[in-house]
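As a warm-up, study this chain.
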Amino acid sequence: SVLVALLPLTTLSPTTHGFDGTRDLSRASSCSDGSTGYATWEAMAQDALELDITATTTTKQILQICPGTTLIPGDNEAIILTNSMEVRCGQYGNFEDNCIVSGGTSHFIIAGESANINFYGVSFREASNSSIRALADPDSSVKFLDCEFYGNEGDDGSAGVDVRPQLDGARAVNTAFESCNFVNNESYHGVLSVRNASTTVQKCKFHSNSLGGAIVTYFESDLTLSQSCFTENDSEGDGIISISGDSSQYHSGGNNYGRSNNAHDCETVSIGNDGGVPMCLQFEMLECISEKIIGAPSATPILPPPSSTETDGPTPAPGPKTSAPTFTLFPPPVPTPAASCNSLPTYGVILSCAQMSLLFW
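Now compare it with the structure written out below.
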């Protein structure tokens, strides 16, 4: 059965990005801001290979992209990361520093038994078959903060981030996304697909993604969603967010918003189908609050801090934060009266009558 739960809203503690570890960048060059980073994909790929070998669970290696740089990988020239690595835009990992990875088949492939990878402030664009392929084991984690996925496509996987195990039936890497934008991506598997894995999406915006909508989960997957907005997405599947699989779980942290989406059955969250009509869960908000959160001038909120085994380094103050491309949101819809609790289909979903009244209107 598919499990759905309402979770209390939790706010991640504001802090800096945790720039720990060492840097030994033999192919890096001087950036316009006086720091050292990469101006070509070839240089970063060669150093990434060497740094990946020396990185450990206690020492995170850093791959810094020079501000104002567009890196262009060729077909089948994805960088493979298998250890504790951090890929960031400029010194502070801010999206406004304009670091773009564009083109190629895929941009990064994440594999290995203990890969702990962080991406900060990078725009991933126009990959032809999944920008990020996350194939690492369940003891690993991949975190994205303040990143953008724009104009990517997917053939055998999702357009943006494709999470799946390396072996059939196994669990896959845990992923987390915060303050990220997913725009104009196209794949029948959505812009984010998750197979046999857990993922958290917080304060993100999904706009104008097509074919598979925004998020698709398969098999025994666990999606936690909060403070996120979905506008003008199209899906030929059951929903803009499709939760499928006999043991899939959907947790709502609340404050999610949707408007002008199109899907086969549900313009919101689709839960299961079992060969019939899926259950549709409505979003909780009448306006997109992520617009305010992403553009807030306060300290940059981030994903959960690195584990205690990682070495803490200096903590430079983050620069001012601005959002990736903003979208014109539509006037909020007028809710209709809540349906009778006794008349709602259950499909094995665990919800109280009070919770159903919050979700169905």
